[in-house]
């Protein structure tokens, strides 16, 4: 099978080698597509690679019938509708580390240019003006730099600013006083940071919570003459409030690499001499572009070949260590879900997944997603996958509960799935036998032992002499070979079950004949 990958923003040619080199991938580079053209084209592609320019909207994703993965060669994914991607089962991956250094260096370049008015002086000189008086700057040494968002880039900026002998005060929701101490920065709230800083730099993602984090009220708390840097995302700083604060002389200068609307030409902030700017160049270095393109190309190529994504954005990433422990249970978890879809009637209201024995000691969320995938796929179709399974279940109002218990009924590990529907509760449990693979060991209250794979017939019948024989004889007449057979009953003469694994698929006629045998209550053909 050949996968088609569209690259719709300029990426480093060296960086996309992992895709070009893959036998099963055809790469198309088309960086001038309008949104309408992209919407028209996207249906042909299995993967899309972008930077920040391509807007991957809900409308685009809805037209992307074959799309499996979107790769963002960079950090920020605010140009991608993540909810729409998740709903349509499209995984989004980014390259979180490749441009950290370049973005931090660009921030420092902007900070120093701002403090020494280098762009303004250069502009004057270019216009034949030898003007030394208007371009007197300030030193960084001894000043306080407020860092809002002390993640990868914020932390690198803090380290470099310390090299300029600045004091750092930082706020990040994940920063503790202890960690701040270890990093040699002062810990503060957003309010502390904006009150105390001479320069403020923001390094958060653009989220609902960070939109206009620096607003009119924040500017009012700042020192007079404060200077502002934004090399993260337009929109973290309220541009109207910044404009006003500069005009009112509260803010002495601002260095902006990013804007609320990009490309930002004819922007009112660019008319102010106190503002210096670059057109979103933080990650535009040869090194960063190569790094991010390699990272994302490798991830996309690997994912298309059936591997796991290293840097998923809309799916929690699972540490390798945990993955190694739970990977053997993947097959079992999906099969248990699928098996139950054949037994249940009515609308699913609640799914309870019980992990016991060894399984109770590990992170099981990926197994839960996989079980739900198995439960939903048969009815909702192939588009249900790990990315959207929980989302779709939630959207359908299904309650999902994970339980960890110690009661593993003598098995070293046991995975039990119980589904409550409008018509009743059904249950199935499975285990992984050392060296023998997966087994289903319980169906409702019956103990069984069979491999969850292939053609299975589940029969409910009256516990009567002859019932089993009649089923065996009819299957023989139908030239159906029985591979294994399990029987179980709750009470003598009561309801009993037969679970047969057979060598071929039973058609409707053959099933009907089985159903009409004496003492048979119901026959279900299961394909696992
Ligand atoms: N200008 C560019 O070209 C360029 C290049 C790379 C990254 N970026 C942008 O820089 C930003 C940071 O990137 P990163 O790689 O450091 O990301 P990161 O995830 O490592 O760090 C972001 C930090 O922001 C913190 N944060 C979240 N909400 C916050 C809040 N309300 N207040 C304070 N902190 C908050 C997080 O806890 C995290 O530590 C992103 O917006 C990214 O898109 C821009
Ligand atoms: O979030 C990022 O990684 C940067 O903003 C880089 O964006 P770009 O890939 O468009 O340069």
TrEMBL record:
Top EC class per UniProt?
oxidoreductase
- Any idea which GO molecular function terms this record carries? phosphoglycerate dehydrogenase activity
Keyword annotations of the record: Amino-acid biosynthesis, NAD, Oxidoreductase, Serine biosynthesis
Q: Which reaction does it catalyse?
A: (R)-2-hydroxyglutarate + NAD(+) = 2-oxoglutarate + NADH + H(+); (2R)-3-phosphoglycerate + NAD(+) = 3-phosphooxypyruvate + NADH + H(+)
- Give one Pfam family: 2-Hacid_dh_C
Pathway involvement? Answer: Amino-acid biosynthesis; L-serine biosynthesis; L-serine from 3-phospho-D-glycerate: step 1/3
Query: What EC numbers are recorded for this enzyme?
Result: 1.1.1.95
Q: What does this protein do?
A: Catalyzes the reversible oxidation of 3-phospho-D-glycerate to 3-phosphonooxypyruvate, the first step of the phosphorylated L-serine biosynthesis pathway. Also catalyzes the reversible oxidation of 2-hydroxyglutarate to 2-oxoglutarate.
Name of the featured protein: D-3-phosphoglycerate dehydrogenase
Q: What is the lineage of its organism?
A: Bacteria, Bacillati, Bacillota, Bacilli, Bacillales
């Amino acid at each position: 099978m050949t996968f088609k990958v569209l690259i719709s923003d300029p990426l480093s040619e060296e960086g996309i080698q992992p895709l070009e080199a893959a036998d099963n991938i055809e790469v198309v580079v088309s960086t001038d597509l309008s949104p309408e053209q992209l919407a028209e084209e996207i249906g042909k592609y299995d993967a899309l690679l972008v930077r920040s320019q391509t807007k991957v909207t809900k409308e685009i994703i809805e037209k992307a019938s074959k799309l499996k993965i979107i790769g963002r060669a960079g950090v920020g994914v605010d140009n991608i509708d993540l909810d729409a991607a998740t709903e349509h089962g499209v995984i989004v991956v980014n390259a979180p580390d490749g441009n950290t250094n370049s973005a931090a260096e660009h921030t420092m370049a902007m900070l120093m240019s701002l403090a020494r008015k280098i762009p303004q002086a250069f502009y004057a000189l270019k216009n034949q003006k030898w003007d030394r008086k208007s371009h007197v700057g300030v030193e960084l040494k001894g000043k306080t730099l407020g860092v809002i968002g002390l993640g990868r880039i914020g932390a690198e900026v803090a380290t470099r600013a310390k090299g300029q002998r600045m004091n750092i005060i930082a706020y990040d929701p994940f920063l503790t006083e202890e960690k701040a101490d270890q990093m040699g920065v002062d810990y503060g709230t957003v309010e502390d940071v904006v009150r105390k800083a001479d320069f403020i730099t923001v390094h958060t993602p653009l989220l609902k919570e960070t939109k206009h984090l620096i607003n009119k009220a924040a500017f009012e708390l700042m020192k007079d003459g404060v200077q502002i840097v934004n090399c993260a995302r337009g929109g973290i700083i309220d541009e109207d409030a910044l404009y006003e604060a500069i005009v009112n002389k509260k803010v002495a200068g601002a260095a902006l690499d990013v804007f609320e609307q990009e490309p930002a030409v004819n922007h009112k902030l660019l008319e102010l001499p106190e503002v210096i700017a670059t057109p979103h160049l933080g990650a535009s270095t040869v090194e960063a572009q190569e790094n991010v393109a390699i990272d994302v190309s490798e991830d996309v190529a690997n994912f298309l070949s059936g591997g796991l994504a290293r840097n998923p954005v809309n799916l929690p990433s699972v540490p390798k260590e945990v993955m190694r422990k739970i990977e053997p249970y993947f097959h079992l978890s999906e099969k248990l879900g699928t098996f139950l879809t054949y037994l249940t009637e009515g609308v699913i209201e609640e799914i309870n997944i019980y992990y016991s024995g060894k399984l109770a000691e590990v992170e099981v969320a990926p197994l839960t997603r996989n079980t739900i995938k198995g439960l939903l796929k048969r009815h909702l179709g192939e588009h249900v996958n790990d990315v959207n399974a929980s989302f779709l279940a939630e959207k359908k109002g299904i309650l999902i509960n994970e339980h960890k218990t110690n009661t593993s009924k003598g098995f070293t590990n046991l995975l039990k799935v119980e589904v409550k529907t409008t018509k009743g509760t059904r249950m199935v449990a499975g285990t992984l036998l050392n060296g023998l693979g997966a087994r289903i060991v319980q169906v409702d209250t019956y103990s069984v032992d069979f491999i969850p794979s292939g053609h299975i017939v589940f029969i409910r019948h009256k516990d009567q002499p002859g019932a089993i024989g009649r089923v065996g004889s009819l299957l023989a007449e139908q030239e159906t070979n029985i591979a294994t057979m399990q029987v179980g009953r709750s009470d003598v003469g009561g309801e009993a079950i037969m679970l047969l694994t057979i060598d071929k698929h039973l058609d409707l006629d053959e099933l009907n004949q089985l159903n009409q045998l004496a003492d048979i209550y119901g026959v279900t053909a299961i394909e696992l």
